[in-house]
Amino acid sequence: MQQEQEKILKDAVLVFLVKDGQVLLATKMKKIGKGKLNSYGGGIEEGETPVQAVIRELEEETRGDKVKGILVEPKDMEKVGIMNFHNTTEEGITFVCKVHMFIARYWHGEIISTEDLADPKWYSIDAIPADHMMPADAVWLPEILKGRKIVGFAKYTPHQASLIGEVKITYVDVVPEQ
Q: Rounded to whole angstroms, how far apart are CA atoms 61 and 156?
C-alpha cells in the first residue's frame, strides 16, 4: 500500500468525547494516523482559536452526508493538554506540530461512521486499545482521561510510524492557551 503524501501541519486540535467512564474512538481513514484508532480533530485554520477549530473539526468530521454533525459548545469543552509532535518527512524536512487537546462531556447530535473516522466505538478509559493507536498515544492519552493536565513532547519517524526516544510529559495545573 502506497503512503499518502505527508502533510506539514504545525497547529492542530484533538477532542475526545467522554461519558460514563468511556471515551469514543474511531478508525482514522485519512492523513496522519490512517488506519489507527483516534478521535476527532485537525488543523487550526488561519485566524481560528483552538476552541473554534475543535468546534469546526468535530462538526465537519461527524457530518457524513447529513446537514450537521456533532455540535459542542465552548463551555462544554475542557482543555487538557498540549502535545508537541516532532516529525520528519521522508524528504528530511523536520517540523513540530503543536496539538491542543480537549475533552467534551456534553454535545448534541448523532455519532455516525464517516469517511474521516469510521466505526466509532466506546472504550473504557481504564482499558484503551493503545496497540491500535499512534505510538505516543499510549503514554499521554491515559493521563488526560484520568483528569490530569499535560504538556508533552514526542518525536516520530516519517509517517509517524514509530517513536524516536521517549515521550516526555510535564503535569500542569493550567494548560497554556497557545
A: 25
pLDDT digit string, tens, across residues 54-104: 999 999 999 888 878 899 999 999 999 999 999 887 888 889 999 999 999
In a domain? residue 4: no
- Global confidence as pTM: 0.92
Q: Would residue 132 be called left, alpha or beta, if left means φ above 0 and alpha means ψ between -120 and 50 degrees?
A: alpha
Distance from CA of residue 89 to its chain's centroid? 20
Residue 178 falls inside a structural domain:
no
Give the count of beta carbons closer than 10 Å to the beta carbon of residue 157: 13
What lies within 8 Å, CB to CB, of 116 at 6+ separation is: 28, 29, 30, 40, 60, 61
Grid cell listed for 78: 475542557
Rounded to 5°, angle at Cα 160 from 156 and 166: 35
What pLDDT is recorded for position 1?
A: 42
Domain encompassing residue 151 = 11-172
For cell 476552541, the residue is 51
